[in-house]
Design a protein that fits this description.
This protein has 337 residues and is of the alpha/beta class. The chain contains 11 helices and 15 strands.
């Protein structure tokens, strides 16, 4: 019997749910002082972690996060078929340099801050298509390396507007397997590029909210599900500004998500006491929050159905210098117990 996996315009139901065998997360010192600190596997005392540069520190963070997730899964490295990983640095050097000694087939991923869910989506497709049995999905970001690349040298001490977000120093990893007892990835909705015409690199939440709305509503329309189908809906890093915009956009289309929706960039920092303005961002934001807090809630069955929507701003310093706008992307996966 042929199983028709595509539903609606751009969503897919896996023929067999893909198991999430284990997760791991490592975060930096600011994240250590945030509301979710107890859910992370390791919290660092400083941004360098014994390395000579922030970039080398980020490579070490993703390397150790992946190693920890593999160890927790109990799966020998030789039995892992693929590693899907990415970050924000030019040509994804944090992940490729950090994982160059893994001896596991590596596919570098880039979806800006949506990279972690993009990796889980891709890994699930490989397993569901019988191209893999066990895969690694990981992503990382680092406040200092990201600020240096995308905005201003930290030494300048530039004033940050209230719409700006704080790039998370951290990494998250999930090991996906063909067999297991769950939680499971069940449904996929890859996103389309949506350009809201915003050019302000200090207003990423507004730039990405349109893509989040497009993927969210497409998922509901394709699957016939209502927001109430899920115990919780999480976006990646819209922050406080983008979260409010998404609630309004979804509401204007008849979808009320206020009661069960939150954003990982909102959850990871204490806005009032940590001076992070609109909240967190970066590949490591949704990666660490999912691998830490959300995965534990699923394991404890406090959540049974979760929709994860990772958002990304598809820009770099060159596009900004050329006066380009900031297109957004958002990828969604359903995870169920």
């Amino acid at each position: 019997m042929i199983f028709i996996k595509k539903v609606g315009n751009q969503s897919y139901i896996l023929s067999k749910p893909v198991n999430i065998a284990s997760t791991a997360s490592i975060v930096g010192p600011k994240e250590k002082n945030g509301p979710l600190h107890q859910f992370f596997d390791q919290c660092l005392e400083d941004e360098f972690w014994g390395e000579k540069s922030w970039e080398k520190a980020e490579s070490k963070i993703i390397k150790e996060t992946v190693n920890m997730a593999i160890a927790k899964s109990g799966i020998p490295s030789k039995d892992i078929d693929f590693c899907f990983a990415g970050d924000l640095l030019n040509q994804c050097i944090a992940s490729s340099f950090g994982l160059r000694e893994s001896n596991i087939p590596f596919l570098g991923m880039f979806g800006a801050c949506s990279t972690f869910i993009e990796s889980m989506l891709t890994g699930s497709v490989f397993i569901d298509g019988d191209f893999a049995t066990n895969v690694i999905c990981a992503a990382s970001s680092h406040f200092c390396s990201a600020e240096k690349q995308f905005r201003f040298p930290l030494e300048l001490g530039n004033q940050r507007p209230q719409t700006s977000q704080w790039t998370v120093t951290g990494s998250g990893c999930a090991i996906l397997t063909k067999e297991g007892t769950g939680p499971y990835v069940t449904t996929l909705t890859p996103g389309k590029i949506v350009d809201m015409g915003i050019k302000d690199a200090n207003n990423m939440g507004a730039a990405m909210a349109g893509a989040a709305e497009d993927t969210l509503l497409t998922h509901f329309q394709d699957t016939g599900r209502a927001p109430s189908y899920y115990d919780a809906i999480f976006t990646g890093d819209l922050g406080h500004v983008g979260k409010d915009i998404l609630i309004d956009l979804a509401g204007s289309k008849g979808y009320n998500i206020k009661s069960n929706y939150n954003d990982c960039g909102v959850l990871i920092f204490d806005k009032e006491n940590q001076d992070t303005h609109s909240g967190g961002s970066g590949c490591g934001c949704i990666a660490s929050v999912f691998a830490g807090y959300i995965y534990q809630m699923l394991q404890q069955k406090k959540y049974r159905r979760v929709l994860m929507i990772a958002t990304g701003a598809l820009m770099n310093s060159t596009s900004s210098q050329q006066g380009e706008s900031i297109p957004g992307i958002a990828h969604a996966i359903s995870i169920e117990v």
